[in-house]
């Protein structure tokens, strides 16, 4: 649990429940929070973001569609965190989950984020700003990201919030409760201060096949421009190849590409079918074939022998 400069206890609540509203190919294979983004489960990005800022206690709110998240992450010790879980069966909605999860904690501040996002926001500065403002809630906004560039005049919500503990009292104990549509307007009506925090840093969201490929492309670009962040990888032009990976002779990697560590998924506790996984990526890509810029952004499967179609899974 993080203690801020003003000695306030801070914990996090991760909203990781997903619902299959359409026939998206992702949810037919694995829950969206576990989709691999450059060989790392998507939900690990917000968790690493929290840990980097010193927040090591988090409650993950999931539902029956995302129980595999708990199997994968376990108690969080592999990530250097202490994870608890709340299963939303009714459903209670984002605000309802915040109240129910927060009731089991003695934290004074809650950082609420989404398990399918990749936040790059300065969390320590966000917390300092929230505390200094005296706000009951802080809503985080950022500038839209288009073709890898920030659009200065277009602000979008990040689904990241900071709530004081007393905000839980404004959330009913029963029924579906939303944050944006119900809780925030209710706080305004009660005269509570709701602050806006505009970040210069992006926060990517994975909602469909297109945004999934955009996230992979963006992370690949960040990594290949800073290869020193991957200590066990060697750089080859615009590609990063793990020391345990094997490439067929004559393989031509058209970067940016990150070829991952063999067995990384098994060490995370997931038993996922490589064949099924590959089919999901193929279906996702087929929806974007008209956009050639994503051609080289697909992640390679851990344990793959790149360059030989007849030995794709090893």
Stretches where pLDDT is under 50 for at least 5 consecutive residues are 262-314
Considering DSSP H and I runs of 4 or more, what fraction of the residues is helical?
A: 25-40%
3D shape: globular
CATH fold field value of the largest domain: Spore Coat Polysaccharide Biosynthesis Protein SpsA, Chain A
Order of helices and strands: EEEEHEHEHEEHEEHEEHEEEHH
The SS-based structural class is alpha/beta
Main beta sheet strand tally, sense and closure: 8 strands, mixed
Distance between the termini: 41 Å
> How confident is the prediction overall: mean pLDDT?
78
CATH arch. level architecture of the largest domain: Alpha-Beta Complex
CATH superfamily of the largest domain: Spore Coat Polysaccharide Biosynthesis Protein SpsA, Chain A
Q: Count every helix, treating DSSP H or I runs of 4 or more residues as helices.
A: 8
* Count of individual beta strands: 15
- Count of discrete domains: 2
CATH class of the largest domain: Alpha Beta
**Share of β-strand residues:** 25-35%
Radius of gyration: 20 Å
Describe this entry's structure for a reader.
This protein has 314 residues and is an alpha/beta fold. It has two domains: 2-205, Spore Coat Polysaccharide Biosynthesis Protein SpsA, Chain A (Alpha-Beta Complex); 209-311, no CATH class. Helix content is 26%, strand content 25%. The strands form four sheets. Strands 1, 2, 5, 6, 7, 9, 10 and 11 form an eight-stranded mixed beta sheet that branches. A three-stranded mixed beta sheet has the order 13-14-15. Strand 13 and strand 14 form a beta hairpin. The chain starts with a strand and ends in a 28-residue tail after the last helix. Residues 262-314 have low confidence and may be disordered.
């Amino acid at each position: 649990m993080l203690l801020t400069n003003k000695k306030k206890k801070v914990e996090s609540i991760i909203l990781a429940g997903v619902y299959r509203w359409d026939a998206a190919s992702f949810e037919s294979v694995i829950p969206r929070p576990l989709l691999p983004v450059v060989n790392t489960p998507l939900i690990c990005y917000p968790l690493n973001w929290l840990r980097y800022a010193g927040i090591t206690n988090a409650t993950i709110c999931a539902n029956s569609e995302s129980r595999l998240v708990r199997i994968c992450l376990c108690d969080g010790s592999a990530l250097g965190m202490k994870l608890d879980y709340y299963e939303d069966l009714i459903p209670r909605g984002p605000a309802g989950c915040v109240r129910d999860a927060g009731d089991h904690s003695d934290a004074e501040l809650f950082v609420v984020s989404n398990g399918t996002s990749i936040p790059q926001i300065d969390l320590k500065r966000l917390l300092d700003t929230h505390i200094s403002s005296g706000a009951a809630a802080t809503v985080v906004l950022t500038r839209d990201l288009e073709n890898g560039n920030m659009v200065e005049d277009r602000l979008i919500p990040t689904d990241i919030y900071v709530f004081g503990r007393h905000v839980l009292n404004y959330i009913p104990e029963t029924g579906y409760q939303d944050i944006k549509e119900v809780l925030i307007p209710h706080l305004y009506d009660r005269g509570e201060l709701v602050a806006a925090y505009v970040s210069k840093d992006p926060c990517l969201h994975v909602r469909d096949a297109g945004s999934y490929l955009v996230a992979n492309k963006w992370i690949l670009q960040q990594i290949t421009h800073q290869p020193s962040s991957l200590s066990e990888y060697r750089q080859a032009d615009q590609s990063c190849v793990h020391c345990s990976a094997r490439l067929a002779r004559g393989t031509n990697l058209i970067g940016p590409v990150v070829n991952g560590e063999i067995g990384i998924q098994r060490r995370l506790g997931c038993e996922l079918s490589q064949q099924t996984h590959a089919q999901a990526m193929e279906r996702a890509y087929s929806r974007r074939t008209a956009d050639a810029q994503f051609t080289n952004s697909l992640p390679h499967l851990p344990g793959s022998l790149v360059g030989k179609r007849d030995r794709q899974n090893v």
